[in-house]
Each structure stands twice: as C-alpha cells, then as structure tokens.
Amino acid sequence: MRGRFITIEGGEGAGKSTNVALMADFLRAAGVAHLTTREPGGTRLGELVRELLLAVTAEPIVPLAELLLMFAARAQHLAQVVVPALEAGTWVICDRFTDASYAYQGAGRELGEAPVAALEQLVQGELRPDLTLILDLDPERGLARVQQRGPLDRFEREQRAFFVRVRTAYQRRALADPVRCRLIDAGQTPEQVGEAVLAPLHDLVGGQ
To answer: CA 129 to CA 96: how far, in whole Å?
Structure first.
C-alpha cells in the first residue's frame, strides 16, 4: 500500500517544526511507518542548495534563479527520498513543498504562478500531497517569533510586504483546494494548533 504524503506550510515563525514533531509522535504512537524531511533539503544536494538560498551575501539571487534552485533540490529530494518511501508504504511528512514555491517565489517574488506550475509538472508529474496543512499567522507576529531565535536568514530579512504576499498566496491556495488543504489559525495556543493539526491525521490513519 502506498504511503501518505503530508506537507506542512506557513510563513516565518508559524510553528511548522513544532508541529512536524507532533505529527511524527502521533504516527509513531499509531504504529505507522513514517519519515520526516524538509524543503529545500532532505538530501545532500538539497541541503547544499538550502545553504545557498538562506545565506546572506553581497550578491543577490534573482527570483528565477531562486525558483530553479528550489525545483532542482525538489527533483533530487523526490527521486532519492520521497517517492521511494511512498512506494515502500512509508508515510512522508515534509516541512514545506511546492505550495511554498507558489507562495514565496510566485507571490512573494512576484514571478506569478505560470513558471511555478510549469516546473511543478516537469518535476513532479502527477504527484501531489495527500494532505497539506497551512499554518496561517500574521507576518508581524511570525517575524517577532523568528527574531528571538538569533540572526535572520536571507528570507527572514525581507520586507513586510513580501510576507503579506506570501500569506495571501497560501490563503488563496487553501481556498482553491479545500479537499487537500487545511488552513489552520497558528495564532491560537500551541495546544489548539496541535489539535487542529492532528484532526485530519486521525481521519487518514483510520482510513488506511
């Protein structure tokens, strides 16, 4: 039986890492074979691309180059990690996936959806997540959380308007695909967010 592909999305400081761990604990307790991974990243090549994309340097990365790097890492990630796991019946929880490209490069960098959609089809074919959880949080609250962690990366240094575009794009994607996507208010208490995150997993585990 094919594994389930679950992705979690959201802007900076929305709580993705915390809830990835929560989902992994839930699946472990339910006896479901799973792995957790992230994008960009998940492979040696992907982690090198991640370093390039997050580093603060004097040379700017043009938006199209950023998008192409994201999908280069994604192609490697799918081939080496995600697809083999799913085919083996292992569930995959991924911290960000292609919805992030629509939000960050398509909307945030204002490239539009067309180049993202073209690369999505080229790299993924018909593969799409079974479930996508989108943690929705006001950008100012999210950035305030991020600033408490330490030095900001290249994305975290963007202007507020960038993150407003990212948030709006995520909200639109959730509305456009309500079967796959769940929009979760990440401004609630951690316990409330956790309950909302695990609710659809109960359904997936029960229906496997």
So the answer is: 11
First to last CA, the chain: 9
Which phi and psi (to 5°) does residue 152 adopt?
-85, 145
- 15 φ/ψ sector (left φ>0, alpha ψ -120 to 50, else beta): left
In this structure, which amino acid lies at residue 82? V
Q: Is 19 helix (H, G, I), strand (E, B) or coil?
A: helix
Nearest to 183 by CA among 163, 169, 164: 169
* Residue 140: Cβ within 10 Å count: 11
pLDDT tens, residue by residue, 114-170: 999 999 999 999 999 999 999 999 998 988 888 888 888 888 888 889 999 999 999
**DSSP secondary structure string, 94-149?**
EES-HHHIIIIIIIIS---HHHHHHHHHHHHTT---SEEEEEE--HHHHHHHHHTT
Backbone dihedral angles phi then psi of residue 74, each to the nearest 5 degrees: -65, -40
CA distance 36 to 95: 8
For 45-93, how does the pLDDT look when each residue is reduced to its tens digit (9 = 90+)? 999 999 999 999 889 999 999 999 999 999 999 999 999 999 999 999 9
What are φ and ψ of residue 63, in 5° steps?
Answer: -55, -45
